[in-house]
């Protein structure tokens, strides 16, 4: 069984290698090769899952060391895998949603001449993401961590001929690198503290280390999580990442990669449990981001960017839950899984809409699409109900638990966190209703588009139509997940019992009863929906965006994060490098060239003595001889 | 007497150089193949060295050869390799054939310009490359300080002609301007390195004088001096030791190059053709960092420890400064040069962190940096040869017309920014861990370098390869077969060493352990050792 | 007669020769002044030989004569060649070797 873990990673990696090096021969069959290998990986995941179910609680963890990777002195890094319930959950989510999105892409990318490469990159992403979750030490996890960053870079910038896509890709990689710096410092700290960075010894030994060290490690891990999961202050790349093809947004920037931060924090639970300061930082980041993302999501007119804001906010919920400690780990992961279903479904729905609307992304130019795209409408609608936490659907179960756990933190802190989570739920209801209404209801506001992707029909009014089967089938399957996953997980606390051996669990005691929390959630939900309906449902939506209030304008600009980055980092950096180039040229090089020039100048002056007049040479000779004689005589005299 | 393998590895390319230079002017193609053949023969010999080298054997040096040479001054012809030298020789021998293949047409006489029948630039180009190889190999092998010094300096002569004599086609600049800048770069290279070498010569003579004074007979033999120091027969007064150390270190720091002695590198790499630039940074400069490990640390352990804080600081400045300047460059080759300065900072940092991980990582870094820079620079060279311009602004959208070229360029770039899965990641991380465990603050500052590396690589890629196809790029041909033959093995090697660096670390590790024991340093202990944690379970 | 007087004479002749070398422009005259200096030296040598009572000084004086003779041959040849090509015998006109 252990050997299958390696195969799990190897299958998509093989796909990536074949597709990227295969050449034009594979242009036609490439998409299916990629999809097949993703499916193989999913099949292996299911086999491993069945095997795991056959064993009980504590024995479910599989470990295997494939080979010794970098042995240098006391530094031992192995390529080894560890598959426990937590990893298994991720494996199924990644390969399952991954396979569906491969399938969807077969239809979505049908007309792109570089689709072979697209599938190669998708396979590469799957391999890296699987490596990330099955690694048994932090260094190997880091390999997967940067691997998904690379895949994300390649896929965001897939339409490289668009400068905006290339810039967005670069930005995503760079912001992620800042986070990666955190992870690499965390690994170094682990090495100096524990002499190793394998999960087992580090997590088991965490209590023996000083709190100061653990806090440092925790904060560095949080920095890493912020980068990958688009949390404040490293969230700015996610919105721009929507430049990538929509299946990429669904898979990488909604369902899987961006949740890697949650995985990292949950996995390192033992470190955080022993470092309260780091935990406080985690919940703060989570709470701030969940509001930040939600506010940004309210103002965006680009359907994908609105969904990206929503992703940020939902991951904020997960990070918040993970920061609560054993009370929240299970719910963080549960929300992560349900979110994986409904957010992927929503993005695929958005992609389907764009597919039918000549790649238009501005929701102000949609409207009344429910009649033209019934399947998309229904699946998107179910995803919508799930994300706002409509009772009985997935999001309801997972989000409610997180809000409850936040209140259970106790004291003022608990009220603040719980309040933020509750407020976030209301805003979620608002912006998702807004997206829903602007896209599928109301009067059609379609405009002829000058599509800049080049491939589509170009100008002319769009003729919305339902997407092909390869696209709708995955949407339907994901919609099923959005509807039922949460309920299934919650019956008998199945999910809790499944994960408990790995993450541990503690029941929190909220200051008010759980029922009150649920009721309060329902109230803000209804308020959010009603407000959105009042603003966008009753009145026609203007095609050009109104100026809006100060907050709206700020939210449209991602609350000025980018402007801040631009002024401080980009401009500042440009000035710094430019002045350094100058310094290097004039000062560092100048000192050397200056020495050379002064030697040259001196010899130039000496040269004048050589005037070519034989008699002046004779004078100097006589003078020299006289001097010598005088000196000799003088020495004699003394 | 057994077969003198080490001598043979150095003599074969030297003979090849003479043979290539002697090929008549008209038979240019034959000269190229002859030179390539000799470089491959050297590669075979280097591989034999690698196979015959036994990492677990006792004693610092293997495959040793020792003959009296200049008896009056105690100079001996002493060769020997340790784990560090043997992998660097292998790297050198490996890169030379690729350098030759990449520069296959760089020294062809221009169409219709043959001033006289005896003019043989092609022969000269390939002969000079082989000459450099021979000298680099013997520098890695020499365990006699004088012998080392001789070839360390002699290397400058062929390099000077390679930089000054061969350059890119002028492109948009005038022929005179190009020639003037090239000769400026060559002279600058020569003067910087000569200055370093002369100071080192003073230190070499000083070392002889000190040994003559204390041991009775003067010697240049590394092993003899080290042995005498261990036995307590040779005790350098701290001031003398520091002065001699600085003399050696200065020469190596110029060659390495370490900030602020780096300014010759961007000029030299910018003006030389891409293969020669690779020769400079991937092969010749490695002698500098290698010599720090072999000579500075082993001959003057006390002074090395004394100088460590300053050198670590200079290395950090190199890392950050080199990376920032790379960001600010407008010329592709100069950008790679500044990136190399940043990487050499990492190597020096690893050496002077004085930990097993740091020094092992630094050695591995020398190998990996050689391969990754070769990949990036050679592809950059192919790109430049197509457009005739080194300015980043002259490119754009190459990815659309030449996807394979863009892809290999990206892989080279990703290796330069140390992406996990590619070889440089392993070494860079080892250096960082090794540094961090002794100097946490330095480790964190160096980590900033990895973010900046991502910045300059991705900016370069974005500006040249992505976006709409620009005018000069349209119709650009993709990589040709010869060019693929150069790049593909390098990329394969980057991948292989990224996934499985163990064969190299196994060879390097004992040698690093030996060096560490010379300096009398051991790795810092973790706060919570693994055993305790396991016992607590 | 006191031999030292010959030394004074030699010094006088040498000074006259040296002054001539420095102030005259005509190459022939400069040349003759050089000869005068050489002969002043010869006189001094011979005087010393007499003073010390051995032959060393006289032998060196012969050497000097031989060298002077050779010098005259080459020197005059050069002067004549320069005069032919530059139509001047002034030493100040022959300054082509300066940088």
Automatic annotation (TrEMBL), chain A:
Domain (NADH-Ubiquinone oxidoreductase (complex I) chain 5 N-terminal) ranges: 69-119
GO biological process: one example: electron transport coupled proton transport
Membrane topology type: Multi-pass membrane protein
GO terms for MF: NADH dehydrogenase (ubiquinone) activity; NADH dehydrogenase activity
Main localization, broad class: membrane
Coiled coil: none
InterPro entries noted in UniProt: NADHpl_OxRdtase_5_subgr (IPR018393), ND/Mrp_TM (IPR001750), NU5C-like (IPR003945), Proton_antipo_N (IPR001516)
Compartmental location: Endomembrane system; Membrane
Record keywords, A-Z: Membrane, Transmembrane, Transmembrane helix, Ubiquinone
Transmembrane regions: 31-50, 87-106, 118-135, 141-160, 181-202, 278-299, 306-324, 330-351, 372-394, 414-432, 473-492, 512-534, 616-635
NADH:quinone oxidoreductase/Mrp antiporter transmembrane domain ranges (all copies): 135-417
UniProt GO cellular component terms: endomembrane system; membrane
PANTHER family given in the database record: NADH-UBIQUINONE OXIDOREDUCTASE CHAIN 5
Protein name: NADH-quinone oxidoreductase subunit L
Organism this protein belongs to: Streptomyces eurocidicus
Automatic annotation (TrEMBL), chain B:
GO cellular component labels: endomembrane system; membrane
Domain of life, per lineage: Bacteria
UniProt topology in membrane: Multi-pass membrane protein
Keywords noted in UniProt: Membrane, Transmembrane, Transmembrane helix, Ubiquinone
Transmembrane keyword on record: yes
InterPro entries for this protein: NADH_Q_OxRdtase_chainM/4, NADH_UbQ_OxRdtase, ND/Mrp_TM
Subcellular location(s) per record: Endomembrane system; Membrane
Family: Belongs to the complex I subunit 4 family.
NCBIfam families xrefs: NDH_I_M, PRK05846.1-4
Protein name, per record: NADH-quinone oxidoreductase subunit M
From TrEMBL, chain C:
Keyword match Transmembrane: yes
Gene Ontology molecular function, alphabetical: NADH dehydrogenase (quinone) (non-electrogenic) activity; quinone binding
Membrane topology, record value: Multi-pass membrane protein
Protein keywords: Cell membrane, Membrane, NAD, Oxidoreductase, Quinone, Translocase, Transmembrane, Transmembrane helix, Transport, Ubiquinone
Gene3D superfamilies: 1.10.287.3510
Short name of one Pfam family: Oxidored_q2
Listed transmembrane segments: 6-23, 28-48, 60-83
NCBIfam families linked: PRK05715.1-2, PRK05715.1-3, PRK05715.1-5
Stored HAMAP family: NDH1_NuoK
Protein name from the UniProt record: NADH-quinone oxidoreductase subunit K
Organism: Streptomyces eurocidicus (Streptoverticillium eurocidicus)
């Amino acid at each position: 069984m252990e050997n299958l873990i390696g195969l799990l990673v190897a299958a998509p990696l093989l796909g990536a290698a074949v597709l990227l090096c295969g050449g034009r021969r594979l242009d036609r069959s490439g998409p299916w090769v990629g999809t097949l290998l993703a499916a193989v990986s999913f099949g292996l995941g299911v086999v491993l899952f069945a095997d795991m179910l056959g064993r009980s609680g504590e024995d479910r963890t599989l470990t295997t060391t494939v080979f010794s990777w970098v042995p240098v002195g006391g530094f031992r890094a192995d390529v080894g895998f560890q598959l426990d319930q937590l990893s298994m959950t991720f494996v199924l989510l990644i390969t399952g949603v991954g396979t569906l999105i491969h399938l969807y892409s077969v239809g979505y990318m049908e007309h792109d001449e570089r689709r072979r490469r697209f599938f190669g990159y998708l396979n590469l992403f799957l391999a890296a993401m699987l490596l990330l979750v099955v690694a048994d030490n932090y260094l190997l996890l880091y390999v997967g961590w940067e691997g998904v960053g690379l895949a994300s870079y390649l896929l965001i910038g897939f339409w490289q001929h668009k400068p905006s896509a290339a810039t967005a890709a670069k930005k995503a990689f760079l912001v992620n690198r800042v986070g990666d710096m955190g992870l690499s410092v965390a690994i170094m700290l682990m090495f100096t503290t524990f002499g190793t960075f394998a999960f087992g010894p580090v997590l088991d030994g965490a209590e023996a280390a000083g709190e100061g060290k653990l806090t440092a490690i925790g904060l560095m891990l949080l920095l890493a999580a912020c980068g990958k999961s688009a949390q404040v202050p490293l969230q700015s790349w996610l919105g721009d990442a929507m430049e990538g093809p929509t299946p990429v947004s669904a898979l990488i920037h909604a369902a899987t990669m961006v949740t890697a931060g949650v995985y990292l924090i949950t996995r390192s639970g033992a470190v955080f449990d022993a470092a309260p300061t780091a935990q406080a930082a985690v919940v703060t980041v989570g709470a701030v981001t969940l509001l930040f993302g939600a506010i940004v999501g309210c103002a965006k007119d680009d359907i994908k960017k609105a969904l990206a804001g929503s992703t940020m906010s939902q991951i904020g919920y997960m990070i918040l839950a993970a920061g609560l400690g054993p009370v929240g780990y299970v719910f963080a992961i549960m929300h992560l899984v349900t979110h994986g279903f409904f957010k992927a479904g929503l993005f695929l729905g958005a992609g389907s809409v764009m597919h039918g609307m000549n790649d238009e992304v501005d929701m102000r130019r949609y409207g009344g699409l429910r009649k033209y795209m019934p399947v998309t409408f229904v699946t998107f609608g179910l995803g919508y109900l799930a994300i706002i936490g409509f009772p009985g659907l997935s999001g309801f179960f997972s989000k409610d638990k997180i809000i409850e756990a936040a209140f259970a933190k106790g004291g003022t802190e608990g009220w603040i966190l719980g309040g933020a989570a509750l407020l976030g739920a209301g805003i979620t209801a608002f912006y998702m209703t807004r997206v829903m209404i602007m896209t599928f209801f109301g009067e059609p506001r379609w405009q002829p588009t000058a599509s800049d992707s080049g491939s589509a029909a170009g100008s002319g009014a769009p003729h919305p139509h339902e997407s092909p089967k390869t696209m709708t089938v995955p949407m339907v399957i994901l919609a099923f997940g959005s509807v039922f996953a949460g309920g299934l997980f919650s019956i008998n606390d199945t999910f809790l019992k499944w994960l408990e051996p790995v993450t541990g669990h503690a029941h929190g005691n909220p200051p008010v009863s759980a029922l009150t929390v649920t009721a309060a959630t329902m109230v803000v939900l209804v308020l959010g929906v009603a407000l959105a309906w009042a603003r966008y449902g009753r009145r026609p939506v203007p095609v050009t965006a109104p100026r809006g209030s100060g907050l709206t304008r700020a939210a449209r600009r991602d609350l000025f994060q980018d402007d801040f980055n631009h002024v401080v980092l980009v401009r500042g950096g440009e000035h710094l490098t430019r002045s350094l180039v100058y310094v290097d040229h004039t000062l560092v090089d100048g000192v050397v060239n200056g020495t050379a020039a002064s030697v040259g100048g001196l010899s130039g002056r000496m040269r004048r003595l050589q005037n070519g007049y034989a008699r002046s040479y004779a004078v100097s000779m006589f003078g020299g001889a006289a001097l010598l004689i005088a000196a000799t005589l003088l020495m004699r005299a003394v | 007497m057994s077969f003198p393998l080490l001598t043979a590895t150095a003599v074969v390319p030297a003979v090849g150089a003479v043979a290539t230079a002697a090929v008549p002017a008209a038979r240019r193609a034959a000269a190229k193949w002859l030179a390539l053949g000799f470089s491959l023969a050297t590669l075979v010999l280097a591989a034999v060295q690698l196979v015959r080298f036994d990492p677990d054997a006792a004693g610092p040096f293997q495959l040793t050869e020792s003959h009296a040479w200049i008896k009056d001054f105690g100079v001996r012809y002493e060769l020997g390799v340790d784990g560090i030298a043997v992998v660097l020789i292998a790297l050198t021998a490996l890169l030379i054939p690729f350098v030759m293949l990449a520069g296959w047409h760089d020294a062809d006489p221009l169409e219709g310009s043959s001033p006289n029948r005896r003019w043989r630039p092609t022969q000269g180009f390939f002969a000079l490359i082989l000459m450099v190889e021979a000298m680099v190999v013997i520098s890695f092998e020499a365990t006699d300080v004088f012998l080392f010094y001789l070839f360390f300096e002699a290397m400058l002569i062929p390099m000077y002609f390679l930089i000054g004599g061969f350059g890119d086609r002028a492109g948009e600049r005038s022929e005179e301007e190009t020639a003037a800048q090239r000769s400026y770069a060559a002279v600058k290279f020569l003067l910087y390195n000569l200055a370093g070498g002369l100071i080192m010569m003073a230190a070499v003579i000083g070392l002889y004088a000190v040994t003559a004074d204390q041991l009775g007979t003067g010697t240049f033999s590394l092993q003899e001096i080290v042995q005498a120091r261990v036995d307590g027969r040779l005790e350098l007064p701290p001031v003398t030791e520091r002065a001699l150390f600085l003399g050696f270190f200065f020469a190596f720091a110029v060659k390495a190059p370490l900030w602020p002695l780096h300014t010759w590198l961007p000029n030299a790499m910018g003006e030389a053709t891409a293969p020669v630039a690779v020769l400079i940074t991937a092969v010749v400069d490695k002698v500098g960092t290698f010599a720090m490990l072999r000579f500075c640390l082993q001959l003057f352990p006390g002074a090395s420890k004394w100088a460590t804080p300053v050198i670590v600081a200079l290395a950090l400045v190199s890392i950050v400064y080199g990376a920032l300047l790379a960001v600010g460059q407008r010329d592709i080759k100069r950008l790679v040069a500044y990136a190399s300065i940043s990487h050499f900072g990492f190597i020096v940092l690893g050496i002077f962190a004085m930990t097993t991980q740091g020094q092992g990582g630094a050695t591995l870094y020398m190998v990996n940096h050689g391969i990754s820079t070769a990949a990036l620079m050679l592809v950059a060279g192919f790109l430049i040869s197509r457009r005739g311009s080194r300015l980043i602004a002259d490119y754009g959208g190459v990815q659309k017309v030449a996807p394979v070229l863009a892809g290999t360029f990206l892989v080279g770039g990703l290796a330069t920014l140390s992406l996990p899965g590619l070889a440089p990641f392993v070494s860079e991380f080892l250096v960082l861990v090794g540094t961090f465990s002794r100097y946490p603050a330095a480790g964190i500052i160096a980590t900033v370098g990895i973010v900046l590396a991502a910045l300059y690589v991705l900016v370069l890629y974005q500006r040249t390869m992505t976006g709409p196809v620009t005018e000069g790029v349209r119709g650009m041909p993709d990589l040709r077969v010869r060019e693929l033959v150069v790049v593909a093995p390098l990329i394969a090697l980057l991948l292989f060493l990224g996934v499985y660096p163990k064969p190299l670390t196994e060879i390097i590790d004992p040698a690093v352990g030996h060096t560490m024991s010379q300096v009398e340093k051991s790795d810092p202990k973790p706060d919570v050792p693994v055993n305790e944690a396991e016992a607590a379970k | 007669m006191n031999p030292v007087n010959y030394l004074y004479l030699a010094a006088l002749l040498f000074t006259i020769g040296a002054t001539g070398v420095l102030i005259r422009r005509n190459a022939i005259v400069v040349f003759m002044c050089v000869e005068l200096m050489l002969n002043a030296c010869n006189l001094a040598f011979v005087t010393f030989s007499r003073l010390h009572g051995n032959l060393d000084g006289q032998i060196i004086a012969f050497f000097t004569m031989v060298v002077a003779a050779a010098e005259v041959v080459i020197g005059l040849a050069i002067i004549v060649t320069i005069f032919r090509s530059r139509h001047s015998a002034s030493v100040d006109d022959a300054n082509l070797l300066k940088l």
